[in-house]
Amino acid sequence: MKHPVPLFALLVSLLSVPVAGQVVKTHPAHSACEEAGNPEERWIGNIYGIISKPRHTGRKQPVAIISHGFNGTHHYGRNYFEMLNALGYQVYAFDFPCGSVHSRSNNDTMNMSVMDEKSDVKAIVHYFRQQPDVDPDGIVLIGESQGGFVTALAAAEIPDRVRAVVLVYPALCIPDNWRERYPEVADIPDTTRLWNVPMGRRFFLELRDIDVFKTIGKYKGPVLIVQGDRDAVVRMEDSRRAVKTYSNARLSVIPGAGHGFQPDEQARSLREIKTFLEELPAGDISAYLPKIMHNFVCYELQNFHHQRP
What is the reported pTM? Predict the structure, then answer.
């Protein structure tokens, strides 16, 4: 059982308390937890993605944008939908064009480019800031692995448009790794295969001029970094250095986790992210606080029902 009975009773009682004039129904119990709408396809220019929204969207809502890692797709973003919807966030997960052999945006990985991916994230932020049901000051960027690296670069260029950043085992080591592999420009072949994914020279040429830690520190907002202490792909020292580079960052270490989380590790990561987002300064949160409270209680109740004997 996740919570002792008294806390569970308190959560149940909260469902019957009007919040800022909002009446929340409590019966049947499961109906209150069916708040998140089914994900819908959403093209933003040439970028394919899916969006999951909390229902009852009468107020403007914050948005979380999920960037997948190397050769990933929007499917990885689904792990975040339930938790973030429960907190009142719309969630958009997408396929980087040329970012994967499985990308529905464009699967030509020979044209993979971290600079293009950075521009894609910025374009998605711009898009959501224009939507009538979105709080333009409530945009959160979440990125995994290479998507975390790209997210950090994008946030540094539009710091005033990003509410907070979450980097999950971010591959901040990418430029150093490939500069070590190809010390000179002449060493870069026309085609490089990583995990059987072909990439062209452009990917590696662009990395040569990136000073990661000089760049990412331009973002001054809240940052959470989540990483396993057994990550064999991304160096923990890079994440620790990033925490020192940012002006407002913290590192959450998942014991025993590698690069990519097992279900229990993913659950812990989601709890860390949830706590981080709940602790953000209020800002414009009053506009959607009733929905956050409602969905949060539903999320906790659902977890209780799933975990009880």
Answer: 0.81
Map residue 81 onto helix, strand or coil.
helix
Residues 6+ apart with CB under 8 A from 232: 258, 259
What distance in Å separates the CA atoms of residue 135 and residue 154, rounded to the nearest whole number?
A: 19
149 with 229, same domain? yes
pLDDT tens, position by position, 95-154: 999 999 999 999 999 999 999 999 999 999 999 999 999 999 999 999 999 999 999 999
The answer to whether the CB of 41 falls within 8 A of the CB of 50 is: yes
Q: What is the CA radius of gyration of the chain?
A: 20
Q: Is 133 in the same domain as 270?
A: yes
Residue 70 lies in domain: 37-278
Domains: count for the chain: 2
**Together in a domain, 147 and 215:** yes
Going by DSSP bridges, is the β-strand pair 90-95/47-52 parallel, antiparallel, or unpaired?
antiparallel
CB 191 within 8 A of CB 110: yes
Residues 24 and 125 in one domain: no
Burial of 257 (0-12, 13-18, 19+ CB in 10 A): buried
**The two structure tokens encoding residue 276:** 């981080």
- Do both 63 and 211 map to the same domain? yes
CA-wise closest residue to 114 among 67, 164, 160: 67
